[in-house]
Amino acid sequence: MNTCFINNRTLKIALILTVIVFNSCIENETKPVQEEASLPIYNDATFTPVWLENNNDKNLTIHSIPSFQFTNQLGDTITEKTFTNKIYVANFFFTTCPGICKKLSNNLIAVQQAFKEDADVLLLSHSVTPEKDSTSVLLKYAKQYGIINNKWHLVTGNRSAIYSIARNGYFADEDLGVKKDETDFLHTENIVLIDKLKRIRGVYKGTSEIEILNLIADIKRLKKEI
C-alpha cells in the first residue's frame, strides 16, 4: 500500500476532527445555551425538508427505508434489523471506481473516526457493481481504507434489489423524473443520514469535506433528539 496515501489520508482525517473540536469549543464559549432545532425529514426524491413539529398536515406520509437483505465484507447477512435503534449513514459506491468513490470513502473515514466508540452510529455502503464486488473484494477494500468491520458494512447482493432501494428507498439517483432500472448505471456522491426510525434526515455531498463536517454535526444533533 502507498505510504504517502496513508499519511495524506490520516492527516486529512486529523485536520477534519481538529476543526470539529475547535469549532465546538468556540461555539461553547461564544453562544448562549439554547435548544437546537431538530433536523427535518425528507419524504421524496426532491429532498424537500419537512419539520414535523411545525407541520399540521394530518395526511402527511412519512417515508422510511424499506426492508432489505444484503451480504457484507465478512460474508454476514445484513438486513434492516442490523440497524434497529441505530443511526446510520448510507451511500453507494464500487471498488474499482477511479474517481469520486476514493474521495468519498476517505471522507467517510472521518465519520467512522468521529463515532468510533459509539455503538449507536453505523455506516452502510452498497456496491453498485455487486457482480464484481464479491465479499472477498469488499474485505480487501475495507482493509485498504482502514474500515472497521461491523462498524461500517460494505454490502453486495442482488443488483436489482440494490438499485431498487437506492432509487426508491434512499432517493440516491440525481436525475429526477427519469425512470430507470438496474440496467441504468447508478453513480452518486450523495450520502444519506438515517435515524433510528429509518427516516431520511439529511443528504450530503460525500466528496465535500465541509459537507462531511455538517454530517458529523447533524449526527450529534440527531443523537440528542432521539
Supply database-style keywords:
226 residues, alpha/beta, Glutaredoxin, five-stranded mixed sheet, two-stranded antiparallel sheet, 5 helices, globular
Q: How are the SSEs ordered, and which strands pair?
A:
Layout: H1 3-30, E1 41-42, E2 49-50, E3 69-71, E4 77-79, E5 87-93, H2 100-114, E6 121-127, H3 135-145, E7 152-155, H4 159-169, E8 190-194, E9 200-205, H5 209-225
Helix pairs in contact: 1-2, 2-5
Structure commentary:
- The protein is globular.
- The model is unreliable at 25-35 (pLDDT under 50).
- It has 226 residues and is α/β, with parallel strands linked by helices.
- α2 packs parallel to α5 (209-225).
- It has a single domain, classed as Glutaredoxin.
- A hairpin with a 5-residue loop joins β8 (190-194) and β9.
- Strands 7-6-5-8-9 form a 5-stranded mixed sheet. A two-stranded antiparallel sheet has the order 1-2. Strands 3-4 form a two-stranded antiparallel ribbon.
- It has helices at 3-30, 100-114, 135-145, 159-169, 209-225, and strands at residues 41-42, 49-50, 69-71, 77-79, 87-93, 121-127, 152-155, 190-194, 200-205.
- Helices cover 36% and strands 17% of the residues.
- The protein contains 5 helices and 9 strands, in the order αβββββαβαβαββα.
